[in-house]
Design brief:
It is built from 11 helices and 2 strands, in the order αααααααββαααα. It is mainly α. It has a two-stranded antiparallel sheet with strand order 1-2. It holds the Pfam family IcmF-related.
Amino acid sequence: DLNQQVDTAINIESWMLDNNFKENKNTLTMGILKLYLSEYQNAWQNLLASLQPVRYNTKEAMLNELNILSKKENPLYSLLKIVSSNTNLNDAVLLTQAYNLGLNAGEIRSNFIGVSNAFTQYHKLVNKNTLLSVGNIEVGKGTDDEKILDILNTSITNMSNKIIDFSSNNNQSAEEKISYALGGNKDANDPFAVFQMNIKKLPNDLERYYS
């Protein structure tokens, strides 16, 4: 219970409060809430910043990983859903608990929405079919972001097929294969070129993960 946790923290520091107990309690409560929200936001941002792809030494292992990532319900998507659900603090039940602290409702809501806004891009990615209101901005509706994860899944499948075809294609010379592998001879519709364009639409941490 949010009230109980705040009261416990205040009781620990009660020696600092003078006779204006109620006024000081409200100030201290808001300070605790802001500190908690700041640490909460940092924790999720640090998690996203720590995402690193697994490096594989064999083609088979790499193709297996690409196959996993090409699925709609893959481990990375499951993590994004967890991040999204835990950083959308513009929630009626959660805000009601905060309002029960007896503080200024507008200030509380502003601080909660501040955290939500820091993760808006992830909310848009995950809540493809849900209209999500963050502050005065409606997200997740009528944007290219709605489909980007599905597009990425298709791009990953196409890259996997290209790798298989590249490995088994006997119509290309060794020089042509080396040139392609080093980045040459890729047209705009090449699976790898398309993938690189698509990941630029992602939040920075996800773009780095897929790069």
